[in-house]
Amino acid sequence: MTNTHEINALKKYVRATNFLATSQIYLKQNVLHKRPLAHSDIKPRLLGHWGTCPGINFVYANINRLIVKHNRPFIYLVGPGHGFPAVQANLFIEGSLSHFYPETIPYNETGIEDICKKFSAAYGYPSHANPEAPGQILEGGELGYSLSVGWGAVLDNPDLIATVLVGDGESETGPLAASWYANRLVSPATNGAVLPIVHINGYKISGPTRMGRMSHEELDLEFRGLGYHPIIVDSEAEEDVYIQMATAMDTAYSMINDIQTRARKGEDIVKPRWPVILMRTAKGWTGVSEYNGQKLEGNCESHQVIVNKCATDKGHLAALDNWLASYRFQELYQINAQGELIFDADICSLIPPKHLACGRQHLTYGGEVVRALSNPDLEKLSYGPEVPRGQRGYSMLKMGQWMRDAFKLNRDQRNLRIFSPDETYSNQLQAVFEETDRAWQWPIESWDEDMSRDGRVIELLSENLLFGMLHGYTVTGRHGMFPTYESFSQVVSSMADQYCKYVYASQGVHFRKPLPACNVVLSSLLERQDHNGYSHQNPSFLGAMLEKHPKIISAYLPADANSTLVYTERAFADRDKLNILVAGKKELPQWLSLEEARKQAKDGVMVWDFASDENPDIVLAGCGDYVTQECMASLVIIRELLPRVRIRFVSVTELSSDGLGSRKFKEKPWMMDEIFTQDKGVVFNYHGYPNTIKKLIFDYKGSRRFRIKGYEEEGSTTTPFDMGVRNGTSRYHLVIDMAYKLFQQGVIDETKHVSITTDMLQRLVDHRNYIKAHGVDPVEIENWVWTR
């Protein structure tokens, strides 16, 4: 039960943070409001969203009360965007800013001046939460990611409670809507808990929200249907909203504690009904309620900066002056002999111990707590020397075996998970079920397979939810994989973008250390989406991510299973990265020994000596497993037709936005000439869009010698080989292109060029007629075997 002292303390704390948030938005001087405002005190640009700040401050104060009361770790994730003035106000009062920035933000009036002057100023502090700010693990305002990130953060952190403030506008997004389903996945026995608080302030930028116009009964029914226990707090109710909120937080904490205690004593908690607080407070609460007859508080007009002409308009300035004065901030602190701030004793009673303050919570600094994985033995997993070159095998099956062994080796650390929006079996990763299961907290029937309360595979058909959970898991220092169908990965492109921005911004922050990589595995590749059709043929994610910062993004396209194992091991050892591993799940030829795969991975580019001639007349290159198979088949054909022609085959297995191959390769630009020759034609067969490779080699002086083949946005329900035919990446098309390059260079004459081209075109016609008649590819295509 709350008491009068606690309520008074909460009110003072929120007064102080509301004042500091307002001062940050408006003032460049006189930030402590020690005299009446003048026009010259106002910033030239007024940025930030005042409307959400009071709610952020109100919740922060109530979280602090629970931390102090129960001595338990909490983190606070703020979903509504542009509310950083409120977040920063709380980080200042709790002392986190002064701890991490003692020189620039000391715990005195100078520190307050700094955060106010620099908020939303050039080279100052952003309007969103950001990695430069203590305790933050996502920006907020990111199209609905907050709740999923919170769920990811509490996995394998059993004592942690992640309080997530969800905006009612944010609630209308797809990612947020799917995030409510995580209650089906997170075990109370071994994980922490998420306490969602939906801030129903009623409005977005210029109109009402859906939840803002729902009755209490409708809200209660909706969240009960989602499997939660809703607790409603309403500032319009008769009871003081501070008492309501404190009671709601106590009730929610008691429910969380009860669920976890019973689960940890061995009770099987089916459908745990976690609490959710539905908090109705007015948008822009405690600000200017109206101006010139226009309603501001409790209306969309308070969404951003209200009375925004204070620098020139006397009426606006007077309204702001009265508004700041209403908080009576001068009553809430004193200055000691050393010039330090001493806040009111009631406010101090809500400041948590240093190690438990939200801004000092060590789990928000994943680089501080990360532990490297114990790696499986690749020698035992790989296809060994007894497997002849060209014999078929499975890349994704081998990756599944690697993950199985990694789960076993790291069982005690509990720092590894798979987040799979497409079924693990479909992605050929089923070997993991020899060691773990799919997590599931709802009823499990006797005929269900590979499901348990504490499985380490998180599987649910929402890319948004699971990528958000992976974000939360990795930035709090753990390791994860996100395998998905290539065509569906674009669903999370913006989320991946924001993850990369978070990682990149973190690298310049002195108190943040490198994080485990976020590993995205693309399977069900377009070359084998022959049965699903055109809708499932989409390598856009790969191309989009390769536009991003090269230090953050690496794309690995292993040509076979042994290379897949090598790159899987590397991906999980990487730090501060988003890695994309592109691997087919169908049976494909195996080309490299483990030793050869490791050698190639050092540079990401390698001449395959076993398939190449010295002093080549032409170069053929492949990037991707299916297209590599077609390259090798084309070599067999052209050597039969032109036995005297010398050919080099180059395998490219690593891409980033600054070129082909690894950074070591990029640091030696002369290696491009060494690999691709200085003057010979190059036919390059690529898994994705040709323009991706064209951009990557644009600055290379020899780029005009390249003929880039790739996905040309052609496809349908067809046969596997016909997918390559339709996009010009088949073996027959490669022979045509190589013959043309050889003719251009004078290696073969026109007659031979025309003869080869005619032959290949006829083979393409024959193939089309065959599949239309029989529905499958010819035997010589399906059962093709490499010969040298």
Automatic annotation (TrEMBL):
Its EC number is 4.1.2.22, 4.1.2.9. Residues 4-368 form the Xylulose 5-phosphate/Fructose 6-phosphate phosphoketolase N-terminal domain. It is an enzyme of class 4 (lyase). The gene is xfp. Residues 585-786 form the Xylulose 5-phosphate/Fructose 6-phosphate phosphoketolase C-terminal domain. This is D-xylulose 5-phosphate/D-fructose 6-phosphate phosphoketolase Xfp. The lineage of its organism: Bacteria, Pseudomonadati, Pseudomonadota, Gammaproteobacteria, Alteromonadales. Its cofactor is thiamine diphosphate. Belongs to the XFP family. InterPro entries: THDP-binding (IPR029061), Transketo_C/PFOR_II (IPR009014), Xul5P/Fru6P_PKetolase (IPR005593), Xul5P/Fru6P_PKetolase_C (IPR018969), Xul5P/Fru6P_PKetolase_CS (IPR019790), Xul5P/Fru6P_PKetolase_N (IPR018970), Xul5P/Fru6P_PKetolase_ThDP_BS (IPR019789). GO terms for molecular function: fructose-6-phosphate phosphoketolase activity; phosphoketolase activity. Keywords: Lyase, Thiamine pyrophosphate. One of its GO terms (biological process) is carbohydrate metabolic process. PROSITE patterns: PHOSPHOKETOLASE_1 (PS60002), PHOSPHOKETOLASE_2 (PS60003).
